[in-house]
Amino acid sequence: MARALTSEQLRAFREDGVAHVPAAVDSEWVERLLAVADQRLANPGEWVNDANPGNERNRMFTERYMWQSNPVINDFVFHSGCGELAGQAMGSQAVRFYFDHLLIKEPATDAVTPWHQDIPYWPFMGKQVCSIWLALTDATVEQSAMEFVRGSHIGGSYYRPEVFNARADHPNAWADEAAGEPLPDIEGNRDAFDIIGYDVAAGDAVIFSAWVLHGARGNNSAGQRRVALSTRWLGDDARWTPKEGGDPTVDPADVSVSPGDYPADDKLFPQVWPC
């Protein structure tokens, strides 16, 4: 059973678009997921972005969609309590799972996670769509913990997605047809935006709206790898909405619901909470 979010955490998610949840999972989950991270670095799967493969420094590695094949990730999705945390934050009566995303930055990694908004990349619309970014190692904002533009989920701005850290065999052209307004230059004008971030300990979570602008710096630590697992969650108002330039890993032909429908596809988007 998940912990109950505090009134302050619920307020932060509602008003700021993001809430920090210390000790969201216990140390056993952290240890099991760190072991998965080591395994995936050594034996990457299908949906991988990897800068400088094999390097122990200056390497950004990400992998998605492991939950159907990796038993630890599957166990985490269904039994960690994160689905319930997502439901509490979104105020949703039920929560379905979208995908998992392992995010690793080795020490002295130059690659940043550019400022972006998640919803334009994903084949869904709705305000009850969120992520839970789980820290598996300690990280400060200066050393690549997440940052957010406070309140940027409010107002309905929809920013055109741009591909970053693309796989060599998945050309950047997949986002060329995407809709949306140009993203402002947040990094170049940081003082013009209300930017917030959280130093995190292993086991902490950051829950954030798919509409809030966010990014992360490279890992400037001299000796510590930064590892996180982000899980993506769908609430009551989520609707299946395939988009040009969106996530290429979900083939609309495999989805059993029609565009505009609630994603009640138990094979691809299983209900996790209530179970």
Report on the architecture of this protein.
The protein has helices at 7-16, 27-42, 71-79, 82-90, and strands at 18-21, 48-50, 60-64, 95-105, 113-116, 124-125, 129-135, 146-149, 195-197, 205-209, 214-216, 226-234, 239-240, 271-273. The chain has one domain (7-273): Jelly Rolls. The protein is α+β, with helices and mostly antiparallel strands. The relative contact order is 0.24. The strands form 3 sheets. Strands 1, 2, 3, 4, 7, 10, 12 and 14 form an 8-stranded antiparallel sheet that branches.
* Helix and strand pattern: HEHEEHHEEEEEEEEEEE
Number of continuous helical runs:
4
Instruction: Give the number of DSSP strands.
Output: 14
> Helical proportion?
10-25%
How would you state the average pLDDT, rounded?
A: 91
Radius of gyration, in angstroms, nearest whole number = 17 Å
Helix and strand topology:
Elements: H1 7-16, E1 18-21, H2 27-42, E2 48-50, E3 60-64, H3 71-79, H4 82-90, E4 95-105, E5 113-116, E6 124-125, E7 129-135, E8 146-149, E9 195-197, E10 205-209, E11 214-216, E12 226-234, E13 239-240, E14 271-273
Antiparallel strand pairs: 1-10, 2-3, 3-4, 4-12, 4-14, 5-11, 6-13, 7-10, 7-12, 8-9, 8-11
